[in-house]
Each structure stands twice: as structure tokens, then as C-alpha cells.
Amino acid sequence: MRQVAQICLFTLFLSVIGVTTDTVFQPTKHERSLALAAPKTCRPAALSQLKRHKIAAGETLDSIARRYNLIPATLMGFNPVLQTGKAPVGEVIVIPPYNGIRVALAPGQTLRTVAKAYNIRPDVLFEINGCQPNPRVVFVPGVNWSPIAASSSAATGGTTVDRIVSGFPLPKALAKTEVLLGYGWKLQPTTGEVAFHSGIDLAAPVGTSVLASGNGTVAFASNQGVYGNLVVINHAQGLQTRYAQLGSIRVKVGQTVKQGQVLGTVGTSGTPSSRQSHLHFEVRSRSELGWVAENSETYLKKILAQ
């Protein structure tokens, strides 16, 4: 019975992402392992877990975001009334369970095409949306809403991008440091629950210098909820890097930085995903609806191979 249930879930997953299960289709070993490793029962869809919040006097966009462990961009994407940056007293807004965006599927569009557009695994998108057979609207985790459309010259791979983000974010002595938690859906060491990890945790002693991975402009340099002390750098070609859980910050918003420049130091601020001190490092690319989390491990492997 267990095997039958797994096969049924696998068949449903394939049909939802837009793959037929007729006699011509032969799933790969990897696709079968993804489906058979899936939970026996799906969790409720993320969009079914929306909460409502009535804005009270004295509250701001930032304070509401911190209360729910979200970033302001997530709330702005779900609530147009907040897109001016102000929080109108008395307005009722919706609060999603995680950072991400809501995407309406166009006619003929499948979860597989949405997953490809946002660089997320189809099975992950399927599960976080409650294993729905024909969703019209889906939640995409790890994407930040932005009013800025993607530049037509934005790139997401290739040698040009490799040159833009080409420096290791820690001193050379730590180039082979341990990866405490990788990118993607992982078992969180601090909670014991499976959750999406948008970056990579690189083990490093508290006080270690954190270095810019490429030339760019500081877009954010302050405390940001679960990220703790966070520095965000915008690079050319629609790329962005993030350095979180810092102990100190040594740059300011609007400042131009060079690859290898010290941005701050390793710390334990915010809500770290790993118990050991580390740098939480992310690489993101700009899309039409926001900053999409890339697999930062891929970038770091290329950097270390140089």
C-alpha cells in the first residue's frame, strides 16, 4: 500500500507540473527519487495560511515585517496599499507564512514553467502549494517582490556573471571552510524542521572579516529581522549578494565597494539557521517580480576553482 501511495503521489506530481504519464514517458531515476522521498501527506498550501493584520497607530512597514519575521518587500508584494512605503492606520493587510511572492498562472502555464522561471525545483513548488492538482495562483518562496522590471540586459549565468561575483566572501585562509547548511529545502539544525534556505552558511569564527564578492553599491546595511545585521550589495547585470548574521557593519547605504573590501564581521545576530558561528551568504538575480535566490554554492565552487 505504501508503494502504491507513493506512485499515486508521483503520478499526481507529474501531471501537475505538465508531464504526461503515458507509455512514451519514462521518468528519470532522479525524478523518481524526488517523488518517492516526498512527504506521505502534503502540508497545507502556503497561500491557505495567510493571516490578517489590522495596522495600529505607531506601526510601520518595517515594524510589522519584523513582527512576523518577514522582509518589507514581501508585505509590499501582497498588499498594494503598502507599496508607498507607508502603513495606513486601520487598513487590514494579509501576512504570508514565509518570504516570497504570489504568482497567477497564465493559460497553458504549468508549475514546471513557473519553477523554471524562478529557478526553483518543480517538486518543491508542488509541495509548498499543497500538492494542488490545478492551482490558478501559486506561492513562490525565496523571491523578493520589486516594482522594478528586469533589465533586458540582465544575465543569470555565463562567464560575464562569473566575473561580476568572483571573490570569496571570507579571507583566503577560510576558503575550504565547512558548509554548515546549503542552499534549498533543508532540515534546519536549530528547529528540526524542513524549510527553504535561500543561501549558504559558511563556518567562521566571530569577528572574522566579511568581504565583498564583487564590485557594486550597498543597497542595505542595517538590522533586518531573522537576517540580523545584513549588508546587501547590488552588482552589474542584475545580480545581488547578501551577507547576514553579521556582528558589525562597516559600510553605509549608497557606498560604492570593491571586490575584497571589508563589509563587516561575522557574528550571531538575527535568527541563525546553524548553531555554529557563520556567514550567511546569498546570491540573487533580478526578475520581473523581484530578487530570485540563486544557488550560491554554484558560484562559490566556480570562485574556488579559479
UniProtKB/TrEMBL annotation:
Query: InterPro entries from the xrefs?
Result: Cell_wall_metabolism_enzyme (IPR050570), Dup_hybrid_motif (IPR011055), LysM (IPR018392), LysM_dom_sf (IPR036779), M23ase_b-sheet_dom (IPR016047)
Task: Provide a Gene Ontology MF annotation, just one.
Answer: metalloendopeptidase activity
Q: Which Pfam families match?
A: LysM, Peptidase_M23
Which part of the chain is the LysM domain? Answer: 51-95
Protein name, UniProt field: M23 family metallopeptidase
